[in-house]
Structures are given as structure tokens and as C-alpha cells.
## 1
Amino acid sequence: MVDMSRLQYAQKYLDDARLLFEHKRLGSAISRLYYSSYQAMWAALGEPAAGRIWKHLAIIKPFVHGHWFNPDHPEQAPGLLEQYRLPLRQLYTYRIKVDYELQEISEAVVKSLIDTVTDVITAIMSKGGA
């Protein structure tokens, strides 16, 4: 069951990213997009096992695999949401670049990532949300 409270935070962060994008605050938009995707994946996967945490880059694999909405999907099979693996990994990399390396990212890339995060949230809603 999707944690709707976390998914609402993901949506708020996505809204913030859109606003930042409109004001040409591209680095800040990337940061909000990253945390939007992270909260959305956490909402889908649920709380990690006792004593564990969802590590930032490691959360992508279980999310993409899709057990959270199809527990019968074979463990060795490609992920049911494989189309998001590379874009989510790239989003993580872009967040590191803007937050720690102070690199500029193009508007086209940020727009593409807004679309990706929007699609991820939509997929979560359609597969496990209310």
C-alpha cells in the first residue's frame, strides 16, 4: 500500500521544482526533483526493514523491480518499471553535480527530469495509490 502522506510530500517537492524552474533556479529545481523522486519511491516501497534506511542511490533498484505492486514478479526478471532506472540514476547524479560540484544544468535537462518525476508519481498512483 502506498504511503499517501509521503506521496503528498513528493508532489509538493515536484510543485516546488516547477516553480523554481519557472524562475530559472535550475540547480535548486534539480534538488527538489531529486527529493520528490526519493519520497515518491519511499512512498511506494514503504518503510525499510527494522534498523535499516533507504539509501539514496540504492532505493532505485527495488522501486524499479516492482515488487511493491506485483509481489509475484520473478526476482531475476527485468524490472517492471525499467524505463525509470536510468533517468532516476541520472537525476541522482545531477543532484550531486549541482549541490556539491556547483555545476550548471541546462533547462532542457531539467524539463526532461520534471517530466520523469511527474511520470514516476503518476505510475505510483496508478499502480498502488488511491
## 2
Amino acid sequence: MRLELLLRLAGVGQLALAAASLAIPRVLGWREETGRLSLLTGRVFWLYAAYIWGFNVSFGLLSLLAPGWLLTPSPLAAAVSGFIAAYWGVRLVAQFA
């Protein structure tokens, strides 16, 4: 039961981060910055940003609403949990390295 609570809290954290990240384009002036890029490069940038945001929301919803799925002793649960852990681990290293 404790792991389930921790996963739910992680889900809330991930969703809070996703919500806060909606302000990043405005704060950092992405529209102006990407406007200087070629049309294709600008669109690819926005697409990548949307994919990252989508992953964050998906991981948050999964952790918050279905922690039991991540805690079942199945290869799929281990793979999804491992992917989420690797995603955030790489994200933290990339952020601060």
C-alpha cells in the first residue's frame, strides 16, 4: 500500500510539472525564437515539445490513476516502470550535467 501511495504522489508531481511547463514557451519566448528558424525546423521543435509534454502527462496519469498496474509482477509492468524511471533519470542527468 505504501508503494501505491508513493506512485500516486509521483503522478501528482509529474502532472504538476506538466502543468507548470505550459508557461515555459511564454517565459522563454519560444514563439519568437522559433520564428527565426526555418519553417520545418520550427515545426519539428514544437512537435518534440508536444511529445515530451504528452509523455509527462501520460506518466503522471498512469502513476496517479493506476498505480496497481505498475506494481503487478508482470514483464509489462516492469518494462513500463523501468522506462519511466530511465526517462526521468536521463532527464535529471541531462538537466544538471
## 3
Amino acid sequence: MRHILLTLVALTILSGSALGETINTTVNGMVCAFCATGIEKTFRKQPEVATVHVDLPKKTVTITTKSGRTLTDAKVKEIVTYSGYSMGKIIREK
């Protein structure tokens, strides 16, 4: 049991280091689950994106990129605008 637990911890650490950066932005005008789903699907289509999380109550989108990949601020804005919304500031984390 201990060996399994150590293996799971090691895999968790390694998988976290395989991800790129985290990009957070607010999306103005996102008011329903349909809106959130549309934005999520559009970001998931991008080859740089590993994961997307949309928080509807907070009106935020959190994107994690693949290792060694990134989305420019202009691309994030383009995707949000293409989806029919405007956005606030972008915050990046490594």
C-alpha cells in the first residue's frame, strides 16, 4: 500500500511539471452554462491548451497550456472575442 501511495505522489508531481503556464482571465457577458460551454470548447480546440476550467459564478476562465507551449494575450483575446464576449485583464502563472 505504501509503495502505491508513493507511486501516486511521484506521478502527480511529474504530471504537474509537464504542464506549461496557467492563464487566468475574466470574461464579461458570460451569464449562463451555454456561454461557459462555448468558451470552453473553443479553447479546447487550440493545440497549445492542456486544460480549461470555466468558473461561471466568478466569470473567469483558467487555461493551462501544454509544456513548452503558450497562448499570446492577443490569441486569448481573439478567442474570447470570437466567442462573442469581452474580457478583462490576463494573469499568467508559471
